[in-house]
Amino acid sequence: MQDIKTYVEQHKQRFLDELFVLLRFPSISADPKYKGDVLKTADFVAEKLKEAGADNVEVAATAGYPIVYGEKIIDPSKPTVLVYGHYDVQPPDPLELWETPPFEPTIRDEKIYARGACDDKGQFYMHVKAFELMLRTESLPCNIKFMIEGEEEVGSDNLGTFVIANKERLKADVVLISDTAMISLDSPSLETGLRGLSYLEVEVTGPNRDLHSGVYGGAVANPATILCQMIASLHDQNNHIVIPGFYDDVQSLSEEERLLLNSAPFDEEEYKEDLQISEVWGEQGYTTIERTGIRPTLEVNGIWGGYIGEGAKTVLPSKANAKISMRLVPNQKSEKITELFQKHFETIAPKSVKVKVTPHHGGEPVVTPTDSVAFQAAQKAIEESFGKKPVITRGGGSIPIVALFEKELEIKTVLLGFGLDSDNLHSPNEKYDLANYYKGIETIPLFFKHFAQLSR
């Protein structure tokens, strides 16, 4: 452990400088105008893998953005860890809410502020530097493979094709991912599950053109009003989702499991203060921890229609749109939930409008085993690095490819995340604590050490 700390301390400024270069690339996979920047980011990641000591580094083309692959096979008889991460980031909008430019990383209060700082550039780059550390200190105890993609934020559409076509090359004993959060450095934790996702867009159309709201208002259905009414009707007074069949496959936890989940440190007053809200909200009968970890949800991610520019323009809009995401829990299936939503949404639409539902992407919920050698290695690594055992939690987010790895590669995943729920992921002023970044680089080699020892 001391050798690890010494190496990190000697190179911490370089580790930070390199991350800053990575963060300056606006690798926004959702917007085609940034295609050149996304491709440059992939090249940079490949370059850094080579510098760290990886062999057979490749920027592998896909039908979309490339996947960066690299490996170090020290002994085919030793266990192999497959590290997954993504170099693409969310759009930074709304730009006016950023205190500093999203692609000019800035340090304030010992935190790195930039788009991608935590999700996922800062977190996957910890693995590149931890790999460098293990090679330079001659302490790499098992084989390592890297697969860093550029389409996670848009559904990883081409990753499945790549995985299926490269099963032999990707053969490993476990997938290691740092794209999740822990409670805090004072209360380190390990996530044992992720929710699935169904993401879609709805469009409500009324008249064939925008209309004068004085001439036509009150006589023609307003798509914006209808859309709001339809969305509001998707929950009842207990914030329970009313789509028929939505909860049919939901796996319920026992009272013992719920008690264990709620034993994780959580301060509701601090939670509300951080978000500047006066009250929490959600499905009746469940705690905040349960609502964000083990219960399915339906949320509006964006809604628009009519005139939204400066000043006034009194129109009755022709169309109104919304983007909607549903987070799913075991044993729900994204395809089934999407179909249930579409059927219900079309059914509740009044005859005065036309409705179109467009599915975008989805993914399946997963629960990782806590009795595996890999999970035990992660627990030991955190305990050695932090001086305390990790709290076991469930994650509220989604990483759809975890289920893909399990299906196609037949291996489980360990979620070794070092972010915080308060890191403003997908929001303005995304951040990542310097302490978490360096702590991750220190902890990852310990996972490799314990994994190798427990795999004997």
**Number of discrete helical segments:** 13
| Overall 3D shape | globular
Which percent band covers the strand fraction?
A: 15-25%
Number of strands: 19
CATH superfamily of the largest domain: Zn peptidases
Give the mean pLDDT.
96
Largest sheet: 6 strands, mixed
| Radius of gyration, whole Å | 23 Å
Low-confidence stretches: none
- The CATH topology of the largest domain is Aminopeptidase
| SS content category | alpha+beta
Can you tell me the CATH architecture of the largest domain?
A: 3-Layer(aba) Sandwich
State the share of residues found in helices, binned by percent: 25-40%
> What's the CATH first level of the largest domain?
Alpha Beta
Distance between the termini: 21 Å
* Strand order across the largest sheet: 1-2-6-3-7-18
Number of domains: 2
Descriptive report:
The protein has 456 residues and is α+β, with helices and mostly antiparallel strands. It has 2 domains: 283 residues, 3-Layer(aba) Sandwich (Aminopeptidase); 123 residues, 2-Layer Sandwich (Alpha-Beta Plaits), CATH 3.30.70. It is 34% helix and 21% strand. The strands form 6 sheets. Strands 1-2-6-3-7-18 form a 6-stranded mixed β-sheet, with helices on both faces. A 4-stranded antiparallel β-sheet has the order 12-14-10-15, covered by helices on one side. Strand 4 and strand 5 form a beta hairpin. Helix 1 crosses helix 3, helix 3 crosses helix 13 and helix 4 runs parallel beside helix 12. The longest helix is centred in the first third of the chain and has 22 residues. It is globular and about 80 Å long. The relative contact order is 0.18. The model has no long low-confidence stretch (mean pLDDT 96).
